[in-house]
Amino acid sequence: xEPNQNTANDILTAGKHVSCWYEPSVQFKTYPALxxxxxxxxxxxxxxxxxxxxxxxxxQAGIKVVLVEDGLIGSGETGRTTAQLVxxxxxxxxxxxxxxxxxxxxxxxxxxxxxxxxxxxxIKKENIDCDFxxxxxxxxxxxxDRSESLKKELEAATRAGISIKELEEVPCVPAEGNCLCFxxxxxxxxxxxxxxxxxxxEEKGGRIFTETHASKIDYTGIVSKDGYIIKAKHVVVATxxxxxxxxxxxxxxxxxxxxxxxxxVKKDTLPKAFWWDTGDxxxxxxxxxxxxxxxxxxxxxDLLIIGGEDHRVGNTRAEGTTEEDRYSLLEEWTRKRFxxxxxxxxxxxxxLVPMDALAYIGHNPWDKDNVYIVTGDCGIGMTHCTIAxxxxxxxxxxxxxKWTKLYNPYRFTLKASGPFFKMLKDDLVSVLKKWFYTDTVxxxxxxxxxxxxVELEGQKCGAFRDANGxxxxxxAECTHLKCMVVWNNDxxxxxxxxxxSRFTYMGKVINGPAINDLQAYSVPY
Length: 525
What we know:
Helices cover 24% and strands 28% of the residues. The chain is α+β, with helices and mostly antiparallel strands. Among the domains are: 133-187 and 254-354, 2-Layer Sandwich (D-Amino Acid Oxidase, Chain A, domain 2); 421-522, Rieske [2Fe-2S] iron-sulphur domain (Rieske Iron-sulfur Protein). Strands 4, 5, 6, 7, 12, 13, 14, 15 and 16 form a 9-stranded mixed beta sheet that branches. α1 runs parallel beside α5 (190-203), α1 (49-60) packs parallel to α8 (381-397) and α3 (102-126) packs across α8. It starts with a strand and ends with a strand. The model is unreliable at 2-12 (pLDDT under 50).
């Protein structure tokens, strides 16, 4: 096998499917790749909501910023969100009160409310047209959950200072029974919001570069794959999974895949609102829940956006449901509750869940004090990313922030030691798997549109045959910590079940913590 040198031409994308946010009406500005050496006050790696929130806040504080993005603005997980800004968090408030205590739980609630308010103020200040709406959110019971859960959540959320009340039935879904109403939630068009932040950053003298891979990151700045250097006083890594931290952070969080469909409903049939259930408690690794919102679509229809059916990355076999079948389950669940018509879009995204369900924002552990990270969105990235913009700016400018200890990336909790050691065991199994994996096939057995693990010259490789019959062969060993990758047939990517790194079928890295491509090989046709 000879190495294939053509993978650099691969288009950077977070998956085969495109979310509803990239509609033709969106004015999507492109930026150049880095082609010069620079020196700046802060360099930010990552052009999603986390990176742009940090860059925006720093530029407003008078700090010169340069932002680099491996793909395009929003082409990572921000462009695959459902864009809900919430104080109704994935972890129940009564669970957080048990884990953190009442006072810290109040701070958690306060930080997410402050993030929603910050987004609203920024939209008004910068005149960003991004479909911002304040909405109510309705939390109702999943059939597998205990009936007292809603009562416990009502009491705990009230103690935390959340605006919440109980309703006798779920608006528009009365068959679900009673629910909790969280008021003053918010929704946005995420890509339009990102474009507005970019404009504001540039107006303050900030610079943005896309299709620029940071191949080296340390306390002095970054070096791009093409060899250009950005020296900076402060370095912020906002890449979903921190690509500058090989071990510390990824051993404290779990990668999950979540699925979304967009279905048409007749105009004005439903109000703008959020709907959530409390999650399937029969699944041990996570409690996947359904999350729903409404988005303006056309003169005749609105778009109901429904997400859920989460699973550990690369672990669909254990649950017996393929990636593609997750969309059918979402559609089935939705049609039982909402008057939807045609499903017009579908996509999936990756979520990193920390040990204690709270994002890691602040100084990078065991690094110089001028290096910062944002990771662990926990399914509520819109507010966690906004919190990061506020908190990291305060850390850099020396302003006291009462959320600092709460989100400190150094933290480790013994309450989560059970899942932690299970994850270490799973990682070890995945690393060893390549030596004992026997389910390999011959290249000739792979049909068009299929991918399989093969053994070539004593090496485990991933082989994908495209629609034209051409084979694409890559190493099956993740470049992060050597786990064996698995094929995601839905998004047509090679995914690492250990820490969530993802690669195109040609081996191009599209999601960290891996920073290097899979070795790709030329194939004689």
